[in-house]
Amino acid sequence: MCLTRVLSPVAVRRKASRFAAVPILIVALHVAAGAVTFERAWRIGLGGSGRTVEQTSDGGYIVGSYAVPDAHKMCIALLKTDSLGDTLWTRLFGGRRYPDSVQGYGGGSACAMRSGYAIRGNAFRQETWIDVIVFGTNLDGDSVWNYQYIGPDDDNLSSLAGTFDGGLIGTGVFTGLPVENMTFVKFDSVGSLQWLKVVNVEVPTCGWRVVQTRDSGFCAVGTADTGQAWVLSLVKLDAAGDSQWVQTYDNPVAYLAYGLANTHDNGFVLAGPWMYGACIMRTNQFGESLWTRHYRVDGYDSTERRVRVDGFYADGRAVAETHDHGFIIAGRTAPRGGFPQPLLLIRTDSLGETLWTRRFLPPFAQTAIASDVKQTTDGGFVITGDADNRYIYLIKTDSMGRVAAGTEEPPAVLIGESALRAQPNPFSACVMLSSPEKLSGKAMLDIYDCTGSLVLREQFSGRTAWSGTDETGRALPSGVYVARAVSPGRVATVRLILSR
Q1: How far is residue 461's CA from residue 433's CA, in Å, rounded to a whole number?
Q2: Domains of the chain (ranges, CATH numbers)
Q3: 174-209 pLDDT per residue, tens
Q4: Residue 235 burial (CB < 10 Å; 0-12/13-18/19+)?
């Protein structure tokens, strides 16, 4: 079955804020063999960025994000969608209802609890120091409890994760304690603090990512600069929060603190940037490295499992183990010194060998980057991040990393942009492109492939046919392309699907 719908702005419950998440990108939904795929982008006020995403028990998704509702306020936000990506509600935390001493909130990572959700933030105060705050909500996103830690200096809670008992585990660094080092905080299912523990890592470190492990313990990763080199620390706790072991690593894996996941054998996989590429490291249950894979995109070397996309820089920001014990890595790609810069998705087998790569970029954006990735119950993947540093970006793919459209996509009218018309779309031999509005001056038509590479540029008078070829006349493969007509004061775009 194929389902195509036009998404209109939705009614948003505003108990937490008067600002709504405005849908910016409108795409077709595709339902085939039980798999739903979509892309969504929202802007809250002046902008926002997705930080974490989880599939909820009702099949929908909860997105934790950072938002800027106006020029004077910074907030953290929860955004709840249904299984099709339609917004159910948005909640902002921060702003004028909080004490004047709080300038705003940064952060925004969130997770599900037994009876609701939690989102963490860092409060910026007039006195310039940074404090920690965690908001707990019910299933409707209404705040029911909060926890604050106010130390004498800058405090940070970088990551939250749900626990088997319905509570929370967090990591970061708190000041004012006898030892200032990697800090863990454990909350029960109603938000009460159960314990606070500090692990005295040799190189004092702020915890960046935390997970609960299969043996009911906890593990966190962090990285620190010694002044001469960066050092990565992986710390394992038991269920009571007592340290079991600490592993440290130096270059070239010292930056792998962006992503952390517990594997089926109670080992770990870490992800982050390495030189000019993405990198993951697989460890056993004691944090001892089993192998490391580098995914450089400026060349090919089979011994390093590089993804070949000449002239691009790649960066890994999140990682998860898949149902078949492989891995999914999300981040970004960027042509050196240029644009566009699409979001990157890499799927590997259990040994880190590349199975496929995908790139995503909204038609109105120049950049996109992933912050979190999870596998969904239907075998697909859900990814969140941002586009152009202003839009909360949410993608749901099938098991092959594809966002398919079974029928013609409705035109997407963008702020400051209009939509090109494309008939037919999808197409196999030729598509007619036309502008619904008169383009002033000398207009140009650019067509990009899914990697963001320019494949065709020509003058555009307002109507032209494209036969799916590049500038040399070479037939291009099936896939998703973006046509972009640019004239003084006007940009018109449309996403094209070539199916040969």
Answers
A1: 10
A2: 21-397 (2.130.10.10), 418-498 (2.60.40.1220)
A3: 999 988 899 999 999 999 999 999 999 988 899 999
A4: buried
